[in-house]
Amino acid sequence: MIRAGLVLMALSVPAYAGDASGFDPLAIDQCLKDATTQGARADCAGTGMEACLTYAKGKYSGDDPDFPLANCLDASHQAWEAKLTATYDAALQDQSAKGIKPAEMLRQAERSWIAFRDDLCNQARDAAGEDKAKLAGARCIRDETARQVALLLSLGDAE
């Protein structure tokens, strides 16, 4: 039943600039831009979720009540991963321009962060219990990825 819902959602025309989930990755850029112009870093992790959930609930007719949320968390996480990759690459280029040592330090910090995020989210998944473990893990991964984007963006602000 879930696969049928995925196929139907994949074939539908998205209502937003994002994918068939209804998640609009441009919402992330707008939130980060707004936060920067206001001189602060807002918590943008949940940005776009409300619109995605409304869209997903309207499109999904299956029997899994958690599917729309899981779908939107996944779409949000994928958008944050893309943003993280772009932000990390820009920070790495900036650090590389300053010499090899800072770039290598950034690479090591990112590797350590990935291990930290995975451990933290595994704990969140375990603490949530069997019935909500998947959602808790997905939410944690998305939130921690968003926080890392904000942290990497702040590296450029500190100079």
Keywords:
single chain, 159 residues, Substrate Binding Domain Of Dnak, Chain:A, Domain 2, 6 helices
Task: Explain what the structure shows.
InterPro entries: LprI-like_N (IPR009739). The protein has 159 residues and is mostly helical. The chain has one domain: Substrate Binding Domain Of Dnak, Chain:A, Domain 2. 74% of the residues lie in helices and 0% in strands. The chain contains six helices and no strands. It has helices at 2-11, 26-37, 49-59, 67-97, 100-128, 133-157. α4 runs antiparallel to α5, α4 (67-97) packs parallel to α6 and α5 packs antiparallel against α6 (133-157). The longest helix has 31 residues, at 67-97. The protein starts with a helix and ends with a helix.
Question: How are the SSEs placed, and which strands pair?
Answer:
Layout: H1 2-11, H2 26-37, H3 49-59, H4 67-97, H5 100-128, H6 133-157
Protein name: Lysozyme inhibitor LprI family protein
Keywords: Signal
Organism: Paracoccus broussonetiae
Please give a quick description of this structure.
The protein is mainly α. The protein contains six helices and no strands. The chain has a single domain, classed as Substrate Binding Domain Of Dnak, Chain:A, Domain 2 (Up-down Bundle).
